[in-house]
Each structure stands twice: as C-alpha cells, then as structure tokens.
Amino acid sequence: MPALASIIPSTHLADVRYEIRGALTRRARELEAAGIDIIKLNIGNPGRYGFAAPTHLREAIASHLRDSEAYGHEQGLEIARETIAAQQRARGARGTDPERIFIGNGVSELIDISLRALLQPGDEVLLPSPDYPLWSAATILNGGRPRYYRCLARHDHLPDPDEIETLITAHTRALVLINPNNPTGAVYPRALLERLVAIAARHRLLLLSDEIYDEILYDGATFQPLAQVAGELPCISFGGLSKVHRACGYRVGWMSLSGDPARSASYRDALQLLAALRLCANVTAQWAVLPALLDAPTIGTLTAPGGRLHEARRAVLEGVAASEFLDLVTPNGALYAFPQVRSDRFAMFDDNAFALRLLEQESVLVVPGSSFNVPGSHHMRLTLLPPPPQLREVFVRIERVLARMAQEQAQAPRSVAMA
After folding, report:
1. Pick from 265, 294, 323: which residue ends a domain?
2. Whose CA, among 155, 226, 288, 310, lies 20 to 30 Å from 280?
3. 292 vs 15, residue with greater confidence
4. What does the pLDDT look like over 309-333, one tens digit per residue?
5. Cβ-count burial of 121 within 10 angstroms (0-12 exposed, 13-18 middle, 19+ buried)?
6. For residue 419, what pLDDT is reported?
7. Residues 132 and 230 grouped into a single domain
8. Mean pLDDT of the chain
9. What is the DSSP secondary structure assignment for residue 233, as one 8-state letter?
10. For 202, phi and psi rounded to 5 degrees?
11. CATH code, domain carrying 29
C-alpha cells in the first residue's frame, strides 16, 4: 500500500496568528496534565474565573426553550433586533432599524462576515497596533491586507489621526477602532473620535467599531459610541453578551449598521446574504438580549471601587508600581492590562521567550505583546478577571523572572570577556 501524502493546509493561513490560544496555551495544558497548577491570565473568559451571567438572562433562556427549536431569521430574532436597534438609537445612532441589525455567534463571526462582504483581493484595512488579532486574521482570510496604525504607550495607547491619514491609499476600504480597547484598556475621548470620523469621511472609509467592552469602565471613564459621532457616515458598531454580561458561552454578538441607509444598501444586502448562508445564529441564547439591554445593568457593581474588577485592577496597578522592571498605562476600560518591561532595563527583550519562561518557571500564563501585532514588543497582556490576591501573587512571580533575567544580562559581558 503506497504511503499517504500529507495534507497541506491552505496558504491563506500562512500569516494568520492567534497566540491567545496558541503554542503557550498548548504548553500550559501539558504542564497541567503533569500535575502543575497554572495561573491563566491569557483569555478574558469571565465564567472561568468565578463570574456568572445575571440570573434573569438564564431565566429568559429557560422560559423560551420550546421557542428555540426551529431555525430563526438569518439576521436574528426580531424582538432581539428591535431591542438592539432601540439601544443604538438611544445612543444617537442614525438610520438604525431592525433590518440593519445582525446577530451572530459572537462578535467573532460578525467581524468575519463584515469584512467578507466588503473586501476585494488586495484591499486594505486600517487596524490598531496593538490589535485584537482576530481582526488581522479576518482581514487576511478575506483577501485583504492589514495596515497598522500605532497606539503607543507614550501616547496613552491612543492613535494619532495624522499618522492614520498617511497610511491611506487608493486601496484602503475601512478603519477599525476597538473602544474600550483590548488589549490596552484605553478609552477613546470624543475629540479623538471626531477627528477619526473626519478622516473616514474624507476618504470614504467604512467605520468598524468593536465596542464589546462598552460598559466596562473605571474611575469615571466615559464611553462615547462611535455611531453618534459618525452621523450619516456608514458605521458598524459591534456589541454582545460575552463581556459586560459575563456570558461568553452563549455566543451572542451583534452588529448595527448606522448612517445614511442609501449609502450602504448594497452592503447591507451582502451582509444579509452571508448571514443566510450560515442559516442563523444560536436561537436559544438570543432570548437573553431583551433582558440584558432593558433591565438594570449589573456590571457597575464590579467596576466601582470595592467591586471585584476594580480591586483586581488596583492589584495590577500596585504590582506594577512596586516593580523594578515594569511600566503601565492605567487601563480605563475593558478587562485587561498591558504592562511593559522597561527598555532601560532590557534593551534587548524577547517577549515570547519571557512568556515561556514565566510559564515554565513560575506557572503563570500571559500573552506576549507581539501577539497583538506590536513589532519589537516589550509588552504582555494579562486579564483582570482573577481574584485580586492571585494577581498580587502573579506580580511577585513576574518580578522573580525579570530579576533572574536582569542578573543573567549583567553577567553576560563578564562571561564573554572570560571566554
């Protein structure tokens, strides 16, 4: 019998990365299988850290199980879309109605659909660096080319509109914003959004605003919906139940197309076609949308002083302040911190090697900053979801690894000289 040929994967995957669940995570599973307890800070998955979805969301789902056994409308349950449209209108979005709302199996699916409906081969999408890497992957897999605008720590991880405009070419189709930001926790002020909308208007770009963390805010930070600023300019706003409502496993996300309907009618129809091709999103969990958006919000008790997320963030800030090696731009929103190893202590720094060492030596799993398309990164991303005492312990362990690395760096010239 002849030997079977190896299956060669698609070349489309050559430039696709998702290290949040990549090689380091696989190594962590190997260590766990060997009996080692790993502190996992790699994924913003509230249910894995003891958070629960609000009871009234579960009850809404349970009471509609018999209503969830057939395929639903390709864009989502009408009552859910009406509720989302009403929320968007209340936030100042123009031209939004249920026919311009699309519910998907999480925002992840909708990001892919929104770009697949838009891009021709070689089209460019402006993405933040750092980005959430799904945006880069979806751009590449749909034939597009990411072009990155920097959100540097020295600028509080906010983008520079002038730099963004220099990146625009005849092939640029869309500008992506992530606000509140994953991985940095930056929250964009209205004045900045106004400048970005003006750029999109001048160059006829579609605005894509990932707002999944819209209500996760700290110390008085204010979220400004992009659709309100965009006005008649076509804009897609993404939201869902995963983060604010701690229901990642429900896989309910939505996108709202706002702006002048006449300017995006063909694009809306393309979105509907793609939504129909996957038949429909999970029907059962969509019944949670109505109570999630209409009942009293529940995230505020967690983000206010004394709340678990606020105190976890405090533990991170204190851990960085006590560190000899770390700096951090204070996160004002979302579920993450993006600390940076100081370049004056480590001129040469391999964030992947550091993350592997932290995992192997101290049983802590973080995501290297380079995984978020940051070249030459000194950063790491960690989630704010673990209990504050555990996060304090994490920084003790991080400091031990960095101290060893600093000692080795100091000894390296002597070793070379002795040789």
Report:
1. 294
2. 226
3. 292
4. 999 999 999 999 999 999 999 999 9
5. exposed
6. 34
7. yes
8. 94
9. S
10. -65, -35
11. 3.90.1150.10
